[in-house]
């Protein structure tokens, strides 16, 4: 037997067995992920944690750029919550130091760094937003300025010596920018190093991120080796498609579900996704167990209406970001609307200028962006007055109070005066 074979056999003999609980935890971890690297290493980390009773340290770093959070942003947070529920320590890392560098990941130009004032203002809202998903009482909150500021110039130079320019240029976005002649600032090379150093400082066992963060997460593994630590495993989560089922969820594409939206709107938007897309939303957004989701799939395959399963998902999401009472109310509102009813919580608008054209009223009531859009909606049969579909684009309304409806979700009670 060669020395290499002997080492391999010795390593295999020291591997911990994977209990049913560890196998379950591994399945929960892998649910909906894009990649888990390296899976065999993480399985051993789980087994060691079970044996010693010491929870794993699981890290997610976010720069406080104050996004308007939507469900797509919560995909990684949901995975953190699943791991938290397995009994591990989740670390919500606010990148107040790295925000001043600017993350170049997935960008074709240098991202302007934030000022200290912007960072401090944004950071105040971050954990509050994250706490809508994470168990705040069991979450470790850290700021990477704790260990990055003390490094100083000498420490930064020493850290920079651990990675070559050639290895940095392996990053896809850097390579594309270099070939295109797009400027790459030297300070951008520091970002992956600083993110990797965060893993050293926190002694991370697992780091989570989006698919565009893979290079940075791998830098953390290499730096931990340099500092004599066991390297972290990395887990990347896929992008969540929006309501159109095609493009990633984005406010600019108007296919998003904001976590601060009214309960009724949130519920209706979840119900609008396709039956097929519903399963991906379950995998990435639901806290239902793997067994529960499998039971849902079996029920649909055996003939149950997928709408019933989608209602359960919509209620779960609304309850998470509002409460259970709001979820129940949203269901009733949805049922009412589906039967042609008028919801209770519609906007009240008072306008003057009777008699007024219907297109002008729809625009003034913020039900349509323009009169031309209002006319298109009338042509498509999407406009109702007090529940009655109208087809006359030249209709003028006299003084009075009316319920105007555009499409399935937009309502306003308009009081028109002379």
Automatic annotation (TrEMBL):
It is found in: Cytoplasm. The keyword NAD does not apply. A motif ('KMSKS' region) lies at residues 248-252. It comes from the Bacteria. Residues 356-417 form the RNA-binding S4 domain. The keyword tRNA-binding does not apply. One of its GO terms (biological process) is tyrosyl-tRNA aminoacylation. Belongs to the class-I aminoacyl-tRNA synthetase family. TyrS type 2 subfamily. NCBIfam families: tyrS. Signal peptide: none annotated. Catalyzes the attachment of tyrosine to tRNA(Tyr) in a two-step reaction: tyrosine is first activated by ATP to form Tyr-AMP and then transferred to the acceptor end of tRNA(Tyr). A motif ('HIGH' region) lies at residues 64-73. It comes from Undibacterium luofuense. Homodimer. Keywords: Aminoacyl-tRNA synthetase, ATP-binding, Cytoplasm, Ligase, Nucleotide-binding, Protein biosynthesis, RNA-binding. GO terms for molecular function: ATP binding; RNA binding; tyrosine-tRNA ligase activity. Its EC number is 6.1.1.1. GO terms for cellular component: cytosol. It holds the Pfam family S4. It catalyses: tRNA(Tyr) + L-tyrosine + ATP = L-tyrosyl-tRNA(Tyr) + AMP + diphosphate + H(+). InterPro entries: aa-tRNA-synth_I_CS (IPR001412), aa-tRNA-synth_Ic (IPR002305), Rossmann-like_a/b/a_fold (IPR014729), S4_RNA-bd (IPR002942), S4_RNA-bd_sf (IPR036986), Tyr-tRNA-ligase (IPR002307), Tyr-tRNA-ligase_bac-type (IPR024088), Tyr-tRNA-ligase_bac_2 (IPR024108). This is Tyrosine--tRNA ligase. ATP binds at residue 251.
């Amino acid at each position: 037997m060669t020395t290499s074979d002997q080492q391999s056999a010795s390593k295999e003999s020291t591997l911990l067995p994977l209990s049913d609980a560890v196998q379950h935890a591994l399945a929960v971890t892998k649910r909906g992920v894009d990649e888990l690297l390296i899976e065999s290493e993480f399985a051993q980390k789980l087994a060691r944690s079970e044996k010693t009773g010491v929870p794993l340290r699981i890290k997610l770093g976010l720069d406080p750029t104050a996004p308007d959070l939507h469900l797509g942003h919560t995909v990684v947070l949901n995975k953190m919550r699943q791991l938290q529920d397995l009994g591990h320590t989740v670390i919500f890392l606010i990148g107040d130091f790295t925000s001043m560098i600017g993350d170049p990941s997935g960008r074709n130009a240098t991202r302007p760094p934030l000022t200290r004032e912007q960072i401090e203002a944004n950071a105040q809202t971050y954990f509050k937003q994250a706490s809508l998903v994470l168990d705040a009482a069991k979450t470790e909150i850290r700021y990477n300025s704790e260990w990055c500021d003390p490094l100083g110039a000498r420490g930064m130079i020493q850290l920079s010596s651990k990675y070559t320019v050639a290895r940095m240029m392996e990053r896809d976005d850097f390579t594309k920018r270099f070939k295109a002649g797009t400027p790459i600032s030297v300070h951008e090379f520091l970002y992956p190093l600083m993110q990797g150093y965060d893993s050293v400082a926190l002694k991370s066992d697992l780091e989570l991120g989006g698919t565009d963060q893979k290079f940075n997460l791998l830098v953390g593994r290499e730096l931990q080796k340099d500092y004599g630590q066991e390297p972290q495993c990395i887990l990347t989560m896929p992008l969540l498609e929006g309501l159109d089922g095609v493009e990633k969820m984005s406010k600019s594409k108007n296919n998003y579900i904001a976590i601060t939206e009214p309960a009724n709107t949130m519920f209706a938007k979840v119900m609008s996704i396709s039956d097929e897309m519903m399963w991906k939303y379950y995998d990435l957004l639901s806290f239902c167990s793997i067994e529960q989701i499998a039971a849902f799939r079996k029920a649909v395959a055996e003939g149950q209406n997928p709408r019933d399963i989608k209602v359960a998902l919509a209620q779960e999401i609304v309850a998470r970001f509002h409460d259970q009472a709001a979820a129940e109310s949203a269901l009733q509102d949805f049922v009412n609307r589906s039967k042609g009813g008028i919801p209770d919580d519609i906007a009240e608008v008072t306008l003057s200028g009777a008699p007024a054209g219907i297109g002008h009223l729809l625009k003034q009531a913020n039900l349509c962006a323009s009169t031309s859009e209002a006319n298109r909606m009338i042509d498509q049969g999407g406009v109702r007055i007090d529940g009655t579909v109208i087809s006359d684009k030249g209709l003028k309304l006299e003084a009075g109070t009316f319920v105007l409806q555009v499409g399935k979700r937009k309502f306003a009670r308009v009081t028109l005066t002379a």
